[in-house]
Amino acid sequence: MIKGLLHTELLKTNKLIWVLILIGPLLVLGMQVLNYAARYDYLLSRRPDAWHYFIENIQVFWPPALLLGMSLTASLMANVEYRADMWKKMFSLPIQPSQAYLAKTILLCAMLILSGAILYGGTLLLGGALGFDGQLPYTYVLKMSYGTLFAAMPFAALQFWLSMHHKNQGIALTVGIAGAALAMFADQLPWWIPWTWPLLLDGIDNSLATVLRGVAVGLVLWIAAICFLAKKEVK
């Protein structure tokens, strides 16, 4: 059943969503292209380890871009259903509402993982093109790309919940944009606020506790969201 629902969700997916999944990490990398094109010698002089400094520069912009991308993607997924009044048609079929929302959850997470893969591969390719010395830091880039993503799972669950619950997508988008803006200055906030977690403030190499916290809280919120939405009366 889930496999069939996933296939249906893929067919319904707006092309703009795939553009967002692609353009988010590419914009983050593009900012570093401009940064290093303008200040290459200066940036290389800042730290002896050019690779790690380059990755940390990317990490500054990846969390807000990711949070904004999560918000837009979840909103577009929900808008497909609301725009064509598909909820009633979907739930008139012999499927459980919880299964339908689970399929959407799996698809959204798969898209976010794809976006992280684009950032991962693009970071290695760009660093190589910039001529950095030393061994390629595969593990460090992986922690940066996916550590940020998994630490942001509570935010993804919240945006999914808001987008699917409210027909007016302005509510979910307002919360999402505000959250992405907040993430840019979240280093001033207490550690227990989830918007600080994607920044990996303890350092990329020391982020395991933060990532696990994000996954655990995100999983609880996602289960709660699916249970709540499954009981919602479709109008």
Q: Describe it for me?
A:
This protein has 235 residues and is an all-alpha fold. It has one domain. Helix content is 77%, strand content 0%. It has helices at residues 2-12, 15-46, 50-83, 86-91, 97-129, 138-151, 153-165, 169-183, 208-230. The model has no long low-confidence stretch (mean pLDDT 90).
Topology diagram in text:
Layout: H1 2-12, H2 15-46, H3 50-83, H4 86-91, H5 97-129, H6 138-151, H7 153-165, H8 169-183, H9 208-230
Helix pairs in contact: 1-5, 2-3, 2-5, 3-5, 3-6, 3-7, 3-8, 5-6, 5-9, 6-9, 7-8, 7-9
Helical/strand content category: mainly alpha
The tally of structural domains comes to 1
Based on Cα principal axes, name the global outline: elongated
SSE succession: HHHHHHHHH
**Any low-confidence stretches, pLDDT <50, length ≥5?**
none
| Alpha-carbon distance between the two ends | 24 Å
State the total count of DSSP E strands: 0
Q: What is the gyration radius calculated from CA atoms?
A: 19 Å
Task: Write down the overall mean pLDDT.
Answer: 90
What share of residues is helical?
over 70%
Note the beta-strand portion: under 5%
The total of helices stands at 9
Report the major sheet.
none
Descriptive terms for the model:
235 residues; single chain; mainly alpha; 77% helix
